[in-house]
Amino acid sequence: MKDDTERLIPFSAPSLCFPKGKIWLVGGTSDSATIARAIAAEQFPCTVTVTTSAARSLYPQRQNLKIEIASMDISQMDKFCWREQIVAIVDASHPYAVAVSEGAIATAQTKQIPYLRYERPSVNFPSLDKGAIELDSLETLVNGDYLLGQRVLLTVGYKALPLFKPWQNRATLFTRLLPALNSLEVAISAGFSSDRIIALRPPVSAELEKALWQQWQISLVVTKASGRAGGEDVKRSVAAELGVSLIVIARPKVAYPQQTSNLSDVIAFCRQHLLLD
CA-based, 20 to 30 A from 58: which of 104, 147, 150, 217? Predict the structure, then answer.
């Protein structure tokens, strides 16, 4: 994979500087939990936002680390930044959480707060990609004939499942989603019967992935380009081994003001904006 990541210049803080304000870590992913632990180790004051209580359990309990469960629009983000005295934003939300990232970017621009996107690296396995079909969106998928007559496993998140309701009589659809009540309710409303739903929290090993596909006699898997953290590499490997077709939905294109895939850059960014005179 070509590394077009914008590199940040490390900042050496004077010894008499003291932290001013807090970092806002937009969380909810395993990546953000790793970043939170690194921030806590540096003793930087930080507020992490997640959208579910289950996600909250990913983070360590530290005095300088505050975890909030919140789903905010732009006006709420503005108030949040004022209340928490946010001086810099690290966005480590899911690659497909476009509305969250766009809201954080807009808030950063309005309040003139430095913003950094942590983007998990993409998976690049040329030897495993020969049978994979890459599409730009789920809309392209459901508007085509890719699913027709197939036994399909959808690993695209519960919010996308209503898009597949018209396909319930044209293909045999299965879905794997997080074990949460709202996820199950959306799946059932989208036409998935209980025997075609599996509620399972990742990570999913290659052995379990393979067993599930074989149990359901899956002929086609739909996933997102979510990187190793999302198990994309495992799905590509199992698909190649079993000869199962794989459709990968590309990441949405977002105009991030500044981004990196390196944890050290995130820490340098936090240090710089917390310790400015």
Answer: 104
